[in-house]
Amino acid sequence: MTHSVSAVRSVDLRVEPVDKVLDRVERSLQTRLDPSTVVRKRRSVGARTDRDTWVRVERRPLDRITDQGWNGTESAARLEGVAQPAWRGCVVWQDAGKPVMWRADETDLLPGAPIGTAVLAEEPTLSEEWWRAFGDSLDALARNTTGRVATPDTVTITRELVGESIRGVFPEVIDTAVERWVPAHADLNWANMSAPVFSLFDWEDWGNAPQGLDAATLWAASLAVPALADRVRSERRDDFESRDGKLMTLFVCAKILGPDAHPEDPRIEPARHRARQVISDLQAG
Question: Are 135 and 97 part of one and the same domain?
Answer without folding.
Answer: no
